[in-house]
Design a protein that fits this description.
The chain has about 210 residues and is of the alpha/beta class. The chain has two domains: about 5-10 and about 135-205, D-Maltodextrin-Binding Protein, domain 2; about 15-130, Periplasmic binding protein-like II (D-Maltodextrin-Binding Protein, domain 2), CATH 3.40.190. Helices cover about 40% and strands about 20% of the residues. The protein is built from seven helices and eight strands. The strands form two sheets. Strands 4-3-5-2-6 form a five-stranded mixed sheet. The protein has a three-stranded antiparallel sheet with strand order 7-1-8.
Length: about 210
């Protein structure tokens, strides 16, 4: 908040709750029931402690009161390898990376961690629709150094919003797993403040310390 001038949120992509096909559930609520019946029996994978999908899964555990063992990996590729081998049984991941494995039947998507349904997966309910208040994902922003003159920041915001409103741009972004966002500078600043507060509360609640 001190070091940057937020201009606009460009795109975002929700994280998806996925399981290996060996887990006998088809929805997130059923999965929570399974986790509660078998506390500490299943493992979830992440890109490493402190990363987006680590925090997402810890939020899921915190909200649902479940116990799932964390197994960190060095990025998405080794995590996917482990999930395919059922070394871990579940994770939060992005659609472009898991799509081939979902289509092959290796992974099952249980829910989308977003406020509304994900356009490329209209038949997959959000976690919120299943009674689990978890929203998490990745986003790409345009920011500038602190102190950028307001007229310059406003012009940048306006021009980027014009591009993001182009149907072909939105179509292409959707093809690669992103949703165009846009909006005002004030909305971008508010989102940063809200996200900082949200993840600060979680980190404090779970007692997380960077390794």
């Amino acid at each position: 908040m001190r070091d940057f001038t937020p201009i606009v949120i460009l795109v975002e992509a929700p994280l998806l709750l996925v399981t290996h096909r060996s887990i006998p559930v088809t929805g997130a609520r059923e999965f929570v029931d399974l986790l509660r019946a078998q506390p500490g029996r299943l493992n979830y994978g992440s890109y490493g402690s402190g990363t987006t999908n680590f925090l997402a899964y810890e939020l899921f555990k915190n909200v649902t009161g479940t116990d799932v063992l964390h197994v960190p990996y060095r990025g998405s590729a080794p995590l996917l390898t482990a999930l395919m081998a059922a070394e871990v049984q579940t994770a939060f991941e992005y659609h472009p990376t898991i799509r081939p494995h979902v289509e092959a039947g290796t992974f099952r998507i249980l829910g989308v961690a977003s406020a509304s349904r994900f356009r490329p997966l209209p038949d997959v309910p959000t976690l919120g629709e299943q009674g689990i208040a978890v929203e998490a994902g990745g986003s790409v922003w345009l920011v500038a150094p602190a102190g950028l003159p307001a007229p310059v920041a406003d012009r940048l915001n306006a021009e980027v919003n014009k591009v993001l409103a182009e149907p072909e741009v939105r179509r292409r972004l959707a093809e690669i797993g992103y949703e165009a966002v846009g909006g005002t500078r004030e909305q971008a600043s508010g989102r940063i403040a809200d996200d900082i507060a949200k993840w600060t509360r979680l980190v404090r609640a779970i007692g997380y310390r960077p390794e």
